[in-house]
Design brief:
Blueprint (H helix, E strand, L loop, with lengths): L2 H11 L9 H14 L6 H26 L8 H17 L5 H23 L4 H21 L1 H4 L5 E2 L14 H6 L1 H22 L1 H11 L1 H6 L4 H27 L1 E2 L6 H14 L6 H19 L3 H15 L3 H13 L4
Antiparallel strand pairs: 1-2
Helix pairs in contact: 2-9, 3-9, 3-12, 3-14, 4-5, 4-12, 5-12, 10-12, 13-14, 13-16, 14-16
Length: 337
C-alpha cells in the first residue's frame, strides 16, 4: 500500500473535529444577531429585546457573584431598584436627562449601597448569605412601598426619556426604544460584557474561583477572602444598578416590584436557565426567559405555574443550563470527551 493511500485512509478514519467554542465569541455572535435584528424583526419583537439587554447586563454582574464566587444572593433585585429609582429621581425631580450621567450616578449609588450591605453579608456564606441578602432586599422594598412622599409608593415614579450623547431623540416611544436607544444599550452591553470577560480572566477572577472551590485553601495561600468577596459583591451591584436603569427607562416607570423578592428569583432563574458556570450562559438565560415568559403569558394566565415547572425540569435534566449543554455537546464533537 502506498504512503498516499495510507494517509488518505488515516484521514478518513480520523474523527471530525469541531472548533472549541469560546464564550466571548458566542457573546459577540449574540450581539451581532441583535444588531441585525432591527432589519428583519417587528417592532414588538424589538421591544422585547430591550428588557433582555437590561437583564443581560444585570446577570453579567450577578453571575460574577453566583457562578464565579459561589455566593447565591436572593436579594439582588434591590440593586435593580436602586438603578431604577436613581433614574426616576434624576429625571423627574432634578431634571437630569443625560443618559450617560444617569448611568454613572446609578453605578456610584449602587456601589455605595453594596459596600454598606456587603460589609455585613459577605462575612457569611451559603444559606446565611442568601437569607441576609433577601432580608435587605425586603427592607428596601418596604421602604419603596411605604414612603409614598419620597418614592410614590405602589404607584412608583415616572422615568422621563433621556438624552443620548446630549441629543434629544424625536418621535414616539416605540421609535425611541427600537431605534437609537436599542443600539445604544446594545453597545453598552457589549462594553460591559468585555469588561466582565477581562475581570473573570484576571488574577482577581482567579482568586474568586479559588474562593468558590475552597475558601480555606485560598486563605492559606494568601487570598484576602473578605476583600475579594466584597469587591465581587460591589461589582455585581454596579452591573445590576445599570441594568435597573435601562429597565426603568424601557418601561418609563420605577416600581417597587422591581425590588421584590420574586424579581430576585427571576435573576436566579435566568442564571440557572442559561448556565451559571459559563460566561455567556446568563445572557442566553435572560434571552430565553424573556421569550419564554412572553410566549407563556400569551397563552395562559397561570404563567408562573408553567415557569416553575420549567425550572424544576431544568434542574433535574439540565443542571448545567442551556450554555453548559451546548458547550458539552461541542466538547464531545471536538473529541475532548
Amino acid at each position: 500500500m502506498s504512503d498516499q493511500s495510507l494517509n488518505l485512509s488515516v484521514a478518513a478514519s480520523r474523527p471530525r473535529t469541531w472548533p472549541r467554542v469560546n464564550g466571548l465569541w458566542v457573546f459577540f455572535g449574540l450581539l451581532a444577531v441583535m444588531a441585525l435584528l432591527p432589519f428583519v424583526a417587528s417592532p414588538y419583537a424589538l421591544l422585547l429585546m430591550v428588557p433582555f439587554f437590561a437583564y443581560a447586563i444585570a446577570l453579567l454582574g450577578f453571575n460574577l457573584l453566583f457562578g464565579t464566587t459561589g455566593l447565591l444572593s436572593f436579594g439582588h433585585a434591590l440593586f435593580l431598584g436602586v438603578g431604577a429609582y436613581t433614574a426616576s429621581t434624576l429625571t423627574s425631580k432634578f431634571g437630569v436627562l443625560s443618559f450617560e450621567l444617569i448611568v454613572l450616578t446609578s453605578a456610584v449609588i449602587s456601589a455605595l449601597t453594596a459596600v454598606i450591605i456587603g460589609l455585613l453579608c459577605v462575612r457569611y456564606t451559603r444559606i446565611f448569605f442568601g437569607m441576609l441578602t433577601l432580608a435587605f432586599g425586603m427592607l428596601f422594598h418596604s421602604f419603596l412601598f411605604k414612603f409614598y412622599s419620597v418614592t410614590g409608593g405602589d404607584q412608583g415614579m415616572r422615568v422621563l426619556r433621556p438624552l443620548l450623547l446630549g441629543m434629544e431623540v424625536r418621535g414616539g416611544k416605540t421609535a425611541f426604544l427600537t431605534g437609537p436607544f436599542y443600539y445604544y444599550v446594545l453597545v453598552l452591553l457589549g462594553m460591559l460584557g468585555i469588561a466582565m470577560w477581562r475581570i473573570t480572566r484576571s488574577p482577581f477572577g482567579l482568586h474568586l474561583r479559588a474562593i468558590r472551590e475552597n475558601a480555606g485553601k485560598a486563605a492559606y495561600v494568601g487570598v484576602q477572602i473578605f476583600r475579594m468577596r466584597l469587591a465581587a459583591f460591589v461589582i455585581s451591584a454596579i452591573y445590576c444598578g445599570v441594568g435597573g436603569t435601562v429597565l426603568a427607562i424601557t418601561t418609563g416607570l420605577a416600581d417597587p416590584e422591581l425590588a421584590y423578592w420574586t424579581h430576585s428569583g427571576n435573576l436566579v432563574f435566568m442564571a440557572v436557565l442559561g448556565g451559571s458556570g459559563t460566561f455567556v450562559g446568563p445572557a442566553i438565560g435572560a434571552l430565553a426567559f424573556v421569550l419564554l415568559q412572553d410566549f407563556v403569558m400569551a397563552i395562559t394566565q397561570y404563567w408562573r405555574f408553567v415557569m416553575g415547572g420549567v425550572l424544576v425540569l431544568l434542574v433535574i435534566f439540565l443542571p448545567q443550563g442551556l450554555a453548559g449543554a451546548f458547550e458539552m455537546l461541542f466538547s464531545r464533537k471536538a473529541g475532548d470527551r
